Amino acid sequence: xxxxxxxxxxxxxxxxxxxxxxxxxxxxxxxxxxxxxxxxxxxxxxxxxxxxxxxxxxxxxxxxxxxxxxxxxxxxxxxxxxxxxxxxxxxxxxxxxxxxxxxxxx
Amino acid sequence: xxxxxxxxxxxxxxxxxxxxxxxxxxxxxxxxxxxxxxxxxxxxxxxxxxxxxxxxxxxxxxxxxxxxxxxxxxxxxxxxxxxxxxxxxxxxxxxxxxxxxxxxxxxxxxxxxxxxxxxxxxxxxxxxxxxxxxxxxxxxxxxxxxxxxxxxxxxxxxxxxxxxxxxxxxxxxxxxxxxxxxxxxxxxxxxxxxxxxxxxxxxxxxxxxxxxxxxxxxxxxxxxxxxxxxxxxxxxxxxxxxxxxxxxxxxxxxxxxxxxxxxxxxxxxxxxxxxxxxxxxxxxxxxxxxxxxxxxxxxxxxxxxxxxxxxxxxxxxxxxxxxxxxxxxxxxxxxxx
Lengths: 106, 337
What we know:
The complex is a heterodimer of chains A (106) and B (337). Chain A has 106 residues and is α+β, with helices and mostly antiparallel strands. Chain A has a single domain, classed as Ubiquitin-like (UB roll), CATH 3.10.20.
């Protein structure tokens, strides 16, 4: 289990233990954390699980796969800290990861 | 007004296979979809992506799957109502009156909602000020390109729609193309063409910029763009076009008095009926304990919902289960001699 901190746009924090092997998106959905829609269910075809990851963690995450940035083009207010949470696999290395949710997903 | 046994909302794989099952058991249906083509997410989101988990089909693309499903229901000659959206659902003497955005009206005892995650709509600019010009000078699709002649047009986006329109409109308009990063996801040939047009100063290209504000008294006059560092620029613009792909919105479905669990409709697993008699939900839009969002689950749900429709469409008949291999009635329905 790995601790992940999700911060809603209004500042509300949720710290949950997520099983390794799940994605950061699944961690949010399974724990009923608002702010991540994940309409397509994790097939990288909708950009509604968009999160911002601050530099300290951003650089430690596995790099984006081909296609993730293409999908992020279609997200709500993407920037250079943007990731799709369905593409971040939880592992021991990510213990303490903090992700920030955008104002909205659609 | 069209009278039918079932109205299916959504022409994705689940809706199509449900139509097939209705045809097999001798019911008629009409299929409505907001998109301009048949296939739902398979066609809109991943026509070229291979799918590996359709039973007995080791690999096929979203487009191939759709084409095969269309082929499979051909014998039944069902009507499709594309580019149209079911807006209103009201109950009249145990029948559902279904009204669409284009003014069509269906009377039916059964409605099967196979709407995926809702209807596809263009993603809009996050800027509040853009709403004021929405539909007049802030546009998300182009119906008549002649309105842009000799005008300044600011196009946002990095995919094929943005690139193709930037290239096309640069013949007759002053085009600026704005994209949030340096890489484009459009076809390589279009990206190359954009670079050439930018070098020749035919297109003003701004990468690593996004929209900040649109301004104008009455009509649109300028658009302000910003970089991530906070630097901003003002561009003259008569029109602003945004091409950020499509998002899925539950839309009017939320207004039909159905129980909702987040964005999904709870159903029973016997026939996938919702809390309203004669309204069924199948595929990604329905939820129940153990729900899997797989196409194959949608097929199963459609087959059972079709049988559920039978008892309301043919209240005086008894449904009899038959195999397609053995039944002459079914072979007749399929037009097999």
